[in-house]
Amino acid sequence: MAKIKLENSMALVIFDLDSTLIGGDSDYLWGEFLVQNNYVDATKFAAQNAQFYEEYKAGTLDIMAYQRFALKPLSEHSMETLNKWHAQFMETFIEPIILPKALALVNEHKNKGDRVMIITATNTFVTRRIGLRYGIAELLGTNGEIKNKRYTGEVEGVPTFQAGKVTRLNEWLKRENESLEGSFFYSDSFNDLPLLEIVENPIVVDADDKLLEIAQTRGWPSISLR
């Protein structure tokens, strides 16, 4: 595992979530949770979930089609029910893939006084409490539209996927009067190349083959948190 030198000056430190801070994909696993508990049509949903995940890994995912698929089950149940399910999901699917080295890295940055955040393509219902599990309150994720205290099944705003992560980050930077001076971004996926290219310290984490090849060509540090 390569050692990353953390300078003394405070910086904005951004983490991808899935397969970076956690040892799996929370979006895919939420689908598996729904299937295993028969909260959805198991056969049909599992097949679609697996197909979308393969498209994500291949870089061919239609993000709006996927998000509507992922948000539809949320629209069919009350917030009370969804929150109860999510507590079970955290215990059975997420706790086993929490990475101690990732927790240590987050805490190392926080102890320096860095501003730490997560930017993830996965919707905020699934991910916000995972971020809090790592002690990270600031999170940009794909927002599901909510009306009358229920999800509608539609996406609100720009999904935080590929270039959409840069769009949403730029909005956040302006709103928070922050800059990318000295910034870090940790990610495993070539889908995150647009954001990796604009930070001062791009760091690849347990990277997919495409991103690893790019990182080697560009001299970006490569580490493992597994």
Helix content: 40-55%
Number of strands: 7
The structural class is: alpha/beta
Q: Give the oligomeric state of the chains in this entry, treating copies of one chain as homo and distinct chains as hetero.
A: single chain
* Euclidean distance between termini CA atoms: 10 Å
Domains (count)? 1
The value of Rg in angstroms is 17 Å
CATH class: Alpha Beta
H/E topology pattern: EHHHHHEHEEHEHEHE
Shape: globular
Could you walk me through the main structural features you see in this protein, from its secondary elements to its overall organization?
By secondary structure, the chain is α/β, with parallel strands linked by helices. The chain has a single domain, classed as Rossmann fold. 48% of the residues lie in helices and 18% in strands. It has nine helices and seven strands. It has helices at 26-36, 42-58, 63-75, 79-94, 100-112, 124-133, 163-176, 193-196, 209-218; strands spanning 12-15, 115-123, 138-147, 150-156, 184-187, 201-205, 222-223. The chain has a seven-stranded mixed beta sheet. β2 (115-123), α6 and β3 form a beta-alpha-beta unit. The longest helix has 17 residues, at 42-58. The model has no long low-confidence stretch (mean pLDDT 95).
Write the layout of secondary structure elements.
Layout: E1 12-15, H1 26-36, H2 42-58, H3 63-75, H4 79-94, H5 100-112, E2 115-123, H6 124-133, E3 138-147, E4 150-156, H7 163-176, E5 184-187, H8 193-196, E6 201-205, H9 209-218, E7 222-223
